[in-house]
Design brief:
With 213 residues, this protein is an all-alpha fold. The protein contains twelve helices and no strands.
């Protein structure tokens, strides 16, 4: 909780983040050498905190990711979202872990909140990880969700990054565009830009399907 609070406050206050540096250093040393008994929930929160604090050390993310791999089956929606978002934020791609996170998410997809599913999609998009079944089933799940403008922008950008010309990307955008029109005045400039860029890449003449690998 202390680490989470430091990262959360430090995200908008560099002085707080600087004062919290010894806490992050001590945590990194302890976790790397005593990772085995730490549960998924705590490790996912730590990854989130380190990523939020822009501490992207592979010396920390590597051992934690390896441990998460053996515990994914017990993770809930929020924990899955936190872990995936952190991997994306840190640009740390772990193929096996990403695959297991996506598979576990599929088993409880209907229980995800909009923010959680947006974070997972954004995380995978940020590291270029495409899981066909995950992105396909998420596309269906999104139809019944209340999404914010930020969710729409992040999801659009993520889909087009991992599979720009894939039918599922086009289907997602076609589903989201009416919502964009309804709330066009609520969008921030960068959100509008993200959606328009996604549409141009998905439906442009050179949008042949080339999923990231």
């Amino acid at each position: 909780n202390l680490l989470w609070a430091c990262a959360k406050i430090g995200a908008s206050d560099d002085m707080i983040l600087s004062l919290a540096e010894p806490i992050f250093q001590a945590t990194e040393i302890h976790v790397v050498t005593h990772v085995d008994p730490i549960p998924f929930r705590c490790l996912a929160t730590m990854l989130w905190a380190f990523a939020t604090a822009k501490r992207y050390h592979s010396s920390f993310f590597g051992p934690v990711a390896a441990k998460l791999l053996s515990q994914v089956s017990i993770a809930n929606c929020q924990e899955l979202a936190n872990a995936t978002w952190a991997l994306g934020k840190a640009n740390f791609r772990h193929e096996q872990l990403c695959s297991k996170l996506a598979t576990q998410a599929l088993s409880c997809l209907r229980a995800f909140k909009a923010q959680e599913i947006s974070n997972m999609v954004w995380g995978f998009g940020s590291i270029g990880f495409f899981h066909n079944r995950f992105f396909t089933e998420v596309a269906t799940t999104l139809k019944g969700m209340e999404l914010t403008t930020q969710h729409i922008a992040n999801i659009s950008a993520a889909y087009v990054r991992v599979a720009p010309g894939h039918p599922v990307t086009r289907a997602v955008l076609l589903n989201l565009l009416p919502h964009c029109c309804e709330r066009v005045r609520a969008f921030k400039p960068q959100e509008v830009s993200a959606v328009l860029l996604a549409v141009s890449k998905a439906f442009g003449n050179d949008s042949g399907y080339e999923p990231c690998s």
